[in-house]
Structures are given as C-alpha cells and as structure tokens.
C-alpha cells in the first residue's frame, strides 16, 4: 500500500512525509504547491514508464528534460482543463524507438491516464545532441 502523512500548521504550510523523503508544502518561496505535486507526479510516473520501455527496447540516451504545465478550469471544481508535457531526450541512440516508447508510456502511465479523465492531455517529444542541435 502506498501512503503519505501530512502535518499542517495553522495556515497553509505543512510537510508531507513519504517513505523515502519529505516535501515542504505551501505558497512561500522554497515550498511546493498542490499542483506542483500533481505535475511532479505526472512527470515522474511518465518518465518511469518511458524508462522501463526504453530499457526493454535497449535504447540509450544521456538524460531527459521534462516540463509539465497546465491550465485549470474556472468553474468549480477547478479541475485541470489542459496538460502539456514537453520532453527533450539528450543524445538518444534511436529516435524512432523513443517515439514509440513515449506513446506507450502515455498509454501505460497511471497518473497520465487518471488526469486524462478530466483534462485534454498533450505531449511533445524532441531530441537534443551534444553539439546543441535540437530536432
């Protein structure tokens, strides 16, 4: 079973305790807001799934940069309206295989699929090389 414990002060400031670490929650500098955690959960789930697929396909790369952004609805409840995930893979060995891996990752990542129930989901995948070239 997965779990977190959260302790809040008498204001919007708290600490989330998970099995392997803590996160400070709030709206001040140095803290994480609720949608930061949602976007972080999406990015980390999507990357973990992508990595598993890339390993199975024996595709290597140096690193991945990811930006997750979104827009909330104005009507209550203010669920997400759109979510965009921008992924840059640095120094990949097989671009086509990573295209397929990202497509599969969006299908298998549980957080991506959960958010897709309320938001229009979109991702872009591009490649960067040591010489600075981006495709």
From TrEMBL:
Pfam families, alphabetized: OsmC
Alphabetized SUPFAM superfamilies for the sequence: OsmC-like (SSF82784)
InterPro entries referenced in this protein's UniProt entry, alphabetically: KH_dom-like_a/b, OsmC/Ohr_fam, OsmC/Ohrsf
The protein's name in its UniProt record: OsmC family protein
